[in-house]
Amino acid sequence: MAEFSKECSVPSKMSWDALEALCRLEGLHCKDLGITKANVNEYEVEFLCDYKKTKMEEFYLVKWRGFPESVNSWEPKRHLKCSKLMKQFHQDLDQELSRQKIRSIPKRLDREISTFIVRKAELRQKLQSWETQLNLTCNHPGRIFVMNDVDFEGPPKNFTYINNYKAGPGIVFTEMAVGCECKNCLEEPVNGCCPGASLHRVAYNEHGQVRVRPGQPIYECNSQCLCSPDCPNRVVQKGIQFDLAIFKTDNGRGWGVRTLQHIKKNSFVMEYVGEIITSDEAEKRGHIYDGEGSTYLFDLDYVEDVYTVDAAHQGNISHFVNHSCNPNMQVFNVFVDNIDERLPRIALFSTRSIRAGEELTFDYKMQIDPVDTESSKMDCSFTLAGVSNSPKKRMRVECRCGADSCRKYLF
């Protein structure tokens, strides 16, 4: 009879929570699950569903983690050790009571109120799961948070988070063959360092803030360069440095993004990432997107209008950034390892100091003043899906940015 290897294992058909609940139910101890003789009879509260009070005591209806709703139970407040969940329960309760113009907590909640609280709790779980997935997927230092205090919309169903451009059918990235030999690219550049090869100066100061005008290309040091990863000419390639939050807007603009940290003027914030497709393919997809009123196609027209970034279903956090006619971010074309000028990386830098908690925006139809030859090449062409060059086919999309200088329409 063959012996089983000690390394042999099979996946469990139960979730971790369900497995823990089963062990507690059967009185089994498990070191990996954290179930010991001392805590085997302790059950974890997943969320609180309902509330009632008598003359003597307050009770909460508890949803136990790992167990079906059929075993929900009323528990006295004194038995519960879940202060955070209790605080969240009362925040949701106060919100709904305020909406219904009820001034005090009733002795027994009606079904409409308890249903609202359960839906909010279930939504919070879905968003927390999505938040965890996003942070496991992203490769940048800045963390991502998700919140929705407006309605019951959960995570997008057809969106995959990616960190870099994804090449679409027929798209080939041409990688840089050579790099610089500088020891200090900012103070002692050899032959002008990487920007010198294209007759441009290093785009950043010693603090990583951009110092060239919008419209001028940025050439960062690449994977073939001898300089260290801490080189001042490596900014965009280091990824998002700030903690950001995806949040649901309260004025019909869908999801938005706000910064949770202060951002200094001229700082790199994020890239616009998606699938690289041809302009012809973008036109085809655009006709599909038109019916959804989506705006995720970004034309890469730095030197030629032949490629487009499609972030409708694959992208990073920039997928959720809204338009503003008075934005706090500006688009720059950046080149790192790819030398094809038709395929720049789209980097968003702050145009001013941005407070923690402020929404991040950029102008979908930003125009760059032609102060020189290079900048005249660059228009920010973040277009409505499928909009052709013919004015007769352009869709009129209302702008809700709320800026004093609002143009009233995005397109």
Task: Describe the protein's architecture and organization.
By secondary structure, this protein is of the alpha/beta class. The chain has 2 domains: 43-135, Beta Barrel (OB fold (Dihydrolipoamide Acetyltransferase, E2P)); 141-393, Beta-clip-like (Beta Complex). Helix content is 17%, strand content 19%. It has a 5-stranded mixed β-sheet with strand order 6-11-13-12-19. Helix 2 packs across helix 3. The longest helix has 27 residues, at 111-137. The radius of gyration is 27 Å and the shape is elongated.
Q: Low-confidence spans: pLDDT under 50, at least 5 residues? A: 370-394
Please, what is the CATH homologous superfamily of the largest domain?
Answer: SET domain
CATH architecture of the largest domain: Beta Complex
The coarse silhouette is: elongated
Number of domains: 2
Spatial strand order of the main sheet: 6-11-13-12-19
Residues in helix, %: 10-25%
Content of β-strand = 15-25%
pLDDT averaged over residues: 85
**CA-based gyration radius:** 27 Å
Distance linking N and C termini: 74 Å
- CATH class bucket of the largest domain: Mainly Beta
Sketch the topology as an H/E string, one letter per element. Answer: HEEEHHEEEHEEEEEHEEEEEEEE
The major sheet is characterized as: 5 strands, mixed
Number of helices: 5
- What is the fold-level CATH name, i.e. the topology of the largest domain? Beta-clip-like
Class derived from helix and strand content: alpha/beta
* Number of DSSP E strands: 19
